[in-house]
Design brief:
- The complex is a heterodimer of chains A (64) and B (410).
- In chain A, the strands form 2 sheets. In chain A, strands 1-4 form a two-stranded antiparallel ribbon.
- By secondary structure, chain A is an alpha+beta fold.
- The longest helix of chain A is centred in the last third of the chain and has 10 residues.
- Chain A is built from 2 helices and 4 strands; from the N terminus they run E-H-E-E-H-E.
- Chain A is 23% helix and 22% strand.
- Chain A has one domain: 2-Layer Sandwich (Alpha-Beta Plaits), CATH 3.30.70.20.
- By secondary structure, chain B is α/β, with parallel strands linked by helices.
- Chain B folds into 3 domains: 181 residues, 3-Layer(bba) Sandwich (FAD/NAD(P)-binding domain), CATH 3.50.50; 123 residues, FAD/NAD(P)-binding domain (3-Layer(bba) Sandwich); 78 residues, Enolase-like, domain 1 (2-Layer Sandwich).
- In chain B, 24% of the residues lie in helices and 30% in strands.
- Chain B has a 5-stranded parallel beta sheet with strand order 3-2-1-7-19. In chain B, strands 9-16-10-11-12 form a 5-stranded parallel beta sheet, covered by helices on one side. A 5-stranded antiparallel beta sheet of chain B has the order 22-23-26-25-24, with helices on both faces.
- In chain B, helix 1 packs across helix 7.
- Chain B is globular.
- The chains are: A alpha+beta (64), B alpha/beta (410).
- Chains A and B meet through helix 1 of A and helix 7 and helix 8 of B.
Chain lengths: 64, 410
């Protein structure tokens, strides 16, 4: 599993960080940092919650 | 067994309800009823990017094809629900009767209008896509803009108009804007953001009337005796839950605002009938069961999904426990709030001279219950986690790097 961010859509609202703090973090300037590009299976539920919760639908899970 | 799920209300909560039902494996019939002719659309951009001085992108969530083919949803758009017969499990929509096994009510709320302005050109609420199109067209034409109500929607509209270089006046009845939603001190701080941008903010003043020519507004008269010229008046004075159609249905309505009263699992108390979104009150377990009605994007999404999962699987009774979150974009600033604002104390923990950025903590009893930030995007969700974990006030101050000794003696 790989995470993909569409930075043209992301506005840094931070719901992904709320759902999955180990995977996402909003920086001081409001931009989103992907902390782990290839999360392990343990993080799947959190990653899915981040995808579902994103108001701008900027996150995608790509299956390898 | 639930074979037919009907969702009434085709905005965010309604959309999330049908999506969650399918994700949970529900393979029965799904009907989505909406009063507007539009497909489900996203509201936050309507008072933000949609008003900017560039071609807006349309705020549709999904195409009609996606809803029909991918989600297997039967759409009934353009007619509001007009009644509920709970005995027969029938929803009335215009002349049609729609039978349900499970029903999710997500009919939202209607923006309050200024009495007597229904027919007056140039005076608009900002709630629907059609409202936004009207406001946008007026801004395109260079309207002198008056905003009635310095709440979050009104403030965003003012910011959008100022960004275009238009003259903007905000009229606010309270002495300090937002004092009811975020407290007096913080409301005052937010006010500064308007003044710095040249928005004429008039507090403690009410609208006494409108001047018009040929059916369109030309000026707003105020209680201090002044008159402000206006081509566009945007009224942001709150909403009324859309529950008039439920009269006599047996669904319990809140005595104060007529919103639907639900339990923790978003059940209305009527068999098979759940509710989600701005239309409803529910006791939020994370805040000791405090009953709240929220008008936030994230909560509406969560409630829609939770209500649908419970509706399609009787006995499931998943409680919705959540930290409310909202954001508002003013000029180039972002205001974010997590938690609830009704507090015993509000403490600004990071603010510097000549810097608009700050962060404020809200204490109730010994607990951190809310955090507001202006341009502190990297911090807000870390505080949200503290609220989820029911952090004490002392823990919150420690996290903020504030001396707890000082906190005790204050």
């Amino acid at each position: 599993m790989r995470l993909e961010i569409d930075y043209s859509r992301c506005t840094g609202l931070g719901i992904c960080e709320a759902e999955a703090p180990d995977l996402f973090e909003i920086q001081e300037d409001g931009s989103l940092s992907l902390l782990v590009e290839r999360p392990t299976a343990d993080s799947r539920a959190a990653a899915q919650a981040a995808v579902a919760g994103c108001p701008t639908e900027a996150i995608r899970i790509v299956e390898d | 067994m639930v074979r037919r799920l009907v969702v009434v209300g085709a905005s965010l909560a309604g959309l999330r309800a049908v999506e969650a039902a399918r994700r949970a494996g529900f393979d029965g019939e799904v009907v989505l009823v909406g009063d507007e002719a539009h497909l489900p659309y996203d509201r936050p951009p309507l008072s933000k990017a949609y008003l900017a001085d560039e071609t807006p992108s349309e705020p549709w969530f999904r195409t009609a094809d996606h809803l029909r083919d991918e989600l297997g949803v039967t759409l009934m758009l353009g007619t509001p629900a007009s009644g509920l017969d709970a005995e027969r499990q029938v929803l009335r929509v215009g002349d049609a009767e729609v039978r349900y096994d499970a029903l999710v009510i997500a009919t939202g709320a209607t923006a309050r209008r200024w009495p007597g302005t229904e027919e007056l050109g140039g005076v608009h609420p900002l709630r629907t896509l059609d409202d936004a199109r009207s406001v946008r067209a007026a801004l395109d034409a260079g309207a002198r803009t008056v905003v009635v109500g310095a709440g979050f929607i009104g403030s965003e509209v003012a910011a959008g108009a100022r960004k275009r270089g238009l003259d903007v006046t905000i009229v606010e009845a309270l002495d300090v804007p937002l004092s009811r939603s975020v407290g007096t001190e913080i409301g005052e701080a937010c006010t500064q953001l308007h003044r710095e941008q040249g928005t004429d903010l008039r507090c403690g003043v009410t609208v006494t009337g409108f001047e018009e020519r040929d059916g369109a507004v030309t000026a707003v008269r105020l209680s201090d005796g002044s008159t402000v010229a206006a081509d566009l008046v945007v009224v942001g004075i709150g909403v009324i839950p859309n529950t008039g159609w439920l009269a006599g249905s047996g669904v319990r309505l809140h005595e104060r605002d007529g919103g639907i009263v639900c339990d923790e699992s978003l059940w209305t108390g009527v068999p098979g009938v759940y509710a989600a979104g701005d239309v409803m009150h529910w006791p939020n377990p994370l805040f000791d069961g405090e009953v709240m009605r929220l008008e936030h994007w994230t909560t509406a999404a969560e409630q829609g999904a939770c209500a649908a999962r419970n509706a399609i699987e009787p006995g499931r009774d998943e409680a919705l426990s959540t930290v409310p979150y909202f954001w508002s974009d003013w000029y180039d600033h972002r205001i974010q709030f997590v938690g609830i604002p009704r507090a015993d104390e509000v403490r600004v923990v990071s603010a510097e001279q000549d810097d608009d950025r700050f962060l404020a903590l809200y204490r109730r009893g010994d607990r951190l219950v809310g955090v507001l930030s202006v341009d502190r995007p990297t911090q807000i969700m870390k505080y949200r986690r503290l609220i989820v974990n029911r952090a004490s006030w002392t823990e919150a101050l420690e996290f903020a790097g504030v001396s707890t000794q000082q906190a005790v003696t204050r």
